[in-house]
Every structure is written in C-alpha cells, then in structure tokens.
Amino acid sequence: MANQFFNLFFMLNVLLSCVSLAQSSVSAVGDPGMRRDGLRVAFEAWNFCNEVGKETPGMGSPRAADCFDLTTKFKFNHRRKRHRIKKSYSLNHRVAAADNKLGMGKPFPGSSPRALNNPDLYAAEKELYLGSLCEVADTPNPWQFWMVMLKNGNYDTKSGLCPENGKKAAPFNPGRFPCFGEGCMNQPILSHQQTRVSCHGTMRGGFNGTYDLGSDTGGMSYFEVVWEKKVGMGSWVFSHKLKTSKLYPWLMMYLRADATKAFSGGYHYDTRGMLTTLPESPNFKVRVTLDVKQGGGPKSQFYLMDIGSCWKNNGTPCDGDVLTDVTRYSEMIINPETPAWCSPTNLGGCPPFHITPYNTKIYRNDTANFPYSAYHYYCAPGNAQHLEIPYSTCDPYSNPQAQELVQLLPHPIWADYGYPTKQGDGWVGDARTWELDVGGLSSRLYFYQDPGSPPATRIWTSLDVGTEIFVSDKDEVAEWTLSDFDVILTSPTT
Ligand SMILES: *[C@@H]1O[C@H](CO)[C@@H](O)[C@H](O)[C@H]1NC(C)=O
Ligand SMILES: *[C@@H]1O[C@H](CO)[C@@H](O)[C@H](O)[C@H]1NC(C)=O
Predict the structure, then answer these.
(1) Which whole-number Å values give the CA distances from 239 to 46, 208, 219, 289, in the listed order?
(2) Is residue 363 within 6 Å of ligand 2 at its C-beta?
(3) Using CA atoms, how far apart are residues 274 and 257, in angstroms rounded to an integer?
(4) Is the C-beta atom of 353 inside 6 A of ligand 2?
(5) Which of 8, 101, 224, 251 could share a disulfide with 60, CB 3.0–4.6 Å?
(6) Model confidence over 181-216: pLDDT tens digits?
(7) How far is it, in rounded angstroms, from Cα 154 to Cα 49?
(8) CB-facing half-sphere around the CA of 421: CA atoms within 13 A
(9) Is the beta carbon of 365 within 6 A of some atom in ligand 2?
(10) Rama region for 296: left / alpha / beta (φ>0; ψ in -120 to 50; rest)
(11) Under the phi-then-psi rule, with left for phi > 0, alpha for psi from -120 to 50, and beta for the rest, what region is 219?
C-alpha cells in the first residue's frame, strides 16, 4: 500500500514537473521549431562591410522574401467509393516577384526620397517593406521572417568603400584581402523558386545563384538554399549549398534568427526578423538540428551557433553611432580542421581569461590551467582604449563599426552547456539535434569593456548557423541541412 502511494506520489510529481516545464518553456522566435506551414523566409546579401555598395544590373536590391499562407480545401470525389474526401492545397503568396525585384530608383510604400539613389539605404528600407508584407501578428510582438544571409568577403581596398572601425578610411594598396580587381565586391545573381505545394502536400521553394557575373569558364561560385516541408508535419528542412571560386574565395552563408526591430548583429540599420523577444544571457537555450553533408574544406569555419550583438565599450547599448558601437560575436567552429590560434605562445589570440561554469576565473598566463585548445581565436575591438598586452585586434573593415570576436572550438570545458566537446562532434556523419545553453555560455565569455564600466546587458539580436569559407585555396563546397530551430527562454531560477 505504502508502495502504491509512493508510486502515485512519484507519478504525480513527474506529471507536475512536466507541466511546469512546459509552462516555463517559452519560445523567443515567431515560428518555434520551424513548424509553421505558412513559411516566412527572406534573403539578404552583404558586401565586405555589410552594405550593398552597388546593385547588380537586373537583380534589384539584394533583399528578397518568400512568405505565404497555406489554404486547405476539401473536395468530394463522387466517383470513388473510398477516399471520397480529397484535400487540396494552395499557397497564397504575400510577396510578388515585382517586390523582390525592387531596385534603386523605384519607390515603394514607406521608401524615403534619400534612399532612392543610395543602394545601402535602399536595401535597408526594402527589408522593412518586405517585412511589412510578411509580418505575422503575434504576442508579445509581431515577427517577419527567418533570414538567409549571404556575404562576399572580397574587399577592393582601392575603393575606399569600407570604413575602418567605423571611421571613413582612405583607399590603400591591395594585398590584405582577396579581390580580383574593380567590381570584386559585386552583389550576386539571385534566382528565386517561389514555394509551391504538390498535390501530396509537399511544399518546396528556394533561392540560388552565383557571384560570378561574367565568364562561365567553369569554377563558378554557387549558393543555394532550398526549403521543404510536408503540410502539417514536422519542421521545414533548409538545405544549403555554398561553393567558392577562384574569384570569390571567401563566402559566408547563414540562416539567421534576427531581431524583429533594432540592429541585428553586424548591421547598423533597423532590421526585420524572427526574434519576438530578444534573448538575454544567461536565460535562453537554442535547439537546432544540423546535418553537415560536406564540410567545405579546411578553411570552412562552420558555426554551430554564431551569436551577434552590439554594445559600446562603456557597456551601454548601441545607438547607431558607428564610431562607438561595437559588434560582438561569439562562434563555436565545428570544423575539426580548424586549429587553435590561441596558445601559450600566442596569448594575444586568447581572451585575457576564461570563466568556468563554477565561476572560477583562469588567466591566460596560467599555462597549467587555461583551456587554450577551447579557443580558436580572440580578437579585441579596434577602438578599445585599455587592452591588456599582448592583444590582437579584429579586422577593422569587415563591419560598419568596430567588432570583437570570441571564437570557440569543441572542448570538454563546454560540456556543461551542451556544446560540442570533441573534434568531430556535429561534423560530417554526426547529424544531431542540439540543445545548446547559449545563454549560459555567453554569460561567461570574456568581452572587452572599459575598466570600471558597469557590465553590459548581453542581449543578442542575431542567432545563426552556417559557414564562413575563409579564403579557400581551391574551389570548395559546403553542404548542410538545418531544421527544428528554436530559441527557448528559460526562467532565471532554472
Ligand atoms: C538556380 O536554380 C535554377 C532552378 O533549379 C537553375 O535553373 C539555375 O541554373 C540555378 N542558378 C545557377 C546560378 O546555377
Ligand atoms: C597573469 O595575468 C594577470 C592578469 O593580467 C596578472 O595579474 C598576473 O600578475 C599574471 N601572472 C603572471 C605570473 O604573470
């Protein structure tokens, strides 16, 4: 009898804890787990300093979207005895081909006169416009779309196009960055296969294209993202492909959950996105299924979570002043061919200290204890005034403002956060659904701040997965699928 009571008590407890777990699990994205039949997805292409620079003729501004609602109709089939009711599906698209083709000089609802002949401003406003077409009313906030981001790492240093740590910079001689000559920072050719639904209820669409505008003498760069889902079942599966070429050896492609308003990581204009609530360290987790089919070669820095935010060196939030705003990124690189540049003999490539899950600080000069192989590279913001020597500052040109990078590698030290603990985890042949304590981990990473300034609130405006093929020596191909993406807010007490 006592035993039965105990069992009952135990089961009740389990039940109750399940209920409370369900209640405390609140998603920060508009489409938790990518399960919504009516998909919202957009595309953006960036040049080296996260702008447009110049549109590619005939392509419009490099912003596009595919957003639709699904309608199911029931038809009676009088001839057949069985299966008399047949479902038929249709998609009501919210973004027309003409919207996606909008380019400089063409006004649209909400466009400002000064944006009409400025390709950077035009793209920023076009994103807001596409967002207005895709927007889903929701609580606590409306949301717009998942974002596919494509970036070309070529920089024409003679163009003087990219600022240096946010400051307008003079042109300089080539050599530091890949560029085949004038026009190397071009925007891609983009084609769009608008989502369609088959009679069996399979929905499929995609974006693809190339950066190579001219010669098709083989070895063209290529990018593709195809999304597919069966009506009413499971998650959308996003299949990505990215290929570098001789002319475009440095390419990036990510699928991002961005802020629905505010600046998202690396972008100094108001954006649209998926994060109905901006997650704050340490109180959030990310769930995502990743299947890397092809790695993209030794230079492919595949990010199983790249998180981006922005705060000033004095700890205050960014306000769009590129001279004092600093983009902050942290990335776990899962390509086992990526070495640790941080080492006892290269302390400048390590953060000044590591913090354990038990809040013990280990200085990088503590060679017996510092986990050097857990860090690929740390670089400090170029506008920081009080850096500890030795240091390495981040590339000053590749963001509109100064940036800071904390790049991690799989290591047992990350086990408490559910992150990859050894080389090969999550890599080709190890497809998994991850539940990453991104909030917990990012609360204990070192980020630079001026001495004595109150610690910045770490609120993340961009969470993404994808690869950066960082100047490949030969044409490389990366291929992966992503699904089930969710950002789960956890309560401070759990
Ligand atoms: C993009 O996909 C379409 C349809 O599958 C194809 O016809 C086109 O050639 C592709 N674009 C490039 C640049 O390969
Ligand atoms: C290690 O670095 C810390 C912080 O910079 C410093 O206080 C300490 O003196 C250093 N220890 C040694 C042995 O150099």
Answers:
(1) 20, 11, 21, 12
(2) yes
(3) 5
(4) no
(5) 101
(6) 999 999 999 999 999 999 999 999 999 999 999 866
(7) 10
(8) 7
(9) yes
(10) left
(11) left
Q: Which amino acid is at 17?
A: S
**Mean pLDDT of residues grouped by 10 in the chain (494 residues)?**
46 44 75 98 97 97 98 81 80 98 97 97 98 96 98 96 95 95 96 97 98 80 98 98 97 98 86 97 98 98 97 95 96 98 98 97 98 98 98 96 97 98 98 98 98 98 97 95 98 69
Q: What confidence score (pLDDT) does residue 22 get?
A: 45
From 363, 387, 448, the mutation candidate for ligand 2 (largest count of ligand atoms within 8 A of CB) is 363
- Take atom 3 of ligand 2 and give the residue whose Cα is closest: 363
pLDDT at 268: 86
Which of 139, 138, 132, 104 is CA-nearest to residue 42?
132
Closest among 21, 30, 15 to 490, alpha carbons compared: 21
**pTM of the entire structure?**
0.93
Residue 489 structure tokens: 């807010």
Q: Is residue 343 within 8 Å of residue 372, measured between CB atoms?
A: yes
Give me the phi and psi of 14, to 5 degrees please.
-60, -45
